[in-house]
Amino acid sequence: MSLHAHSPLTAFLLRPAGLVAGLLCLVVAPGARADDALGSLLARLGARPHAHATFTETQTLSLLKRPLQSSGELYFTPPDRLEKRTLLPKPESLLVEHDTLVLRRGKRQMTVQLSQYPQLAPLVEGIRATLAGDRAVLERVFAVELAGTEADWSLALVPRDLELVKIVPRLAISGHDDELQVVETVRANGDRSVMRITPQATP
User: Is the pTM for the entire model greater than 0.85?
Assistant: First the structure.
């Protein structure tokens, strides 16, 4: 089954508040190589417990006159459980574990297998590889470019999949020192989101 730009599942997973923006903000992986700038950055991020974070998000959509605001919490449980819980303005959740993705909104629930969506699965695996510290997989799924300084840095992630890049051409992650602060998702139609993240201390 292919991932189409106008399918209901794609609209939810790849819209600005969907899977990409929600889960990428939990980047915690130490890089396998610490002898270059990217490896050094990933090592610093990996030294912090980012398993739980809060977020606020602003979405700018071409179909709406005003930006949408939302907020909630993000969780990562090793090795492969990712969850985004939106609390305001309306509760909804997105959970990825193993090969299963579960979407909940009100009383509605949708469960799908990632293996059924070959254009989506590599993106999810890339995110989970980042969280697990597998830099090789991350760079296989994305073209990664680091800019800035150690104090104020930014990462540009471009999907290598030619079909996916037609929907989400770019992701931008930025932060200060060892804290990830902002995730921006840009879609091919001009829609975008800016998510601001606040890591929470692990109990």
Answer: no
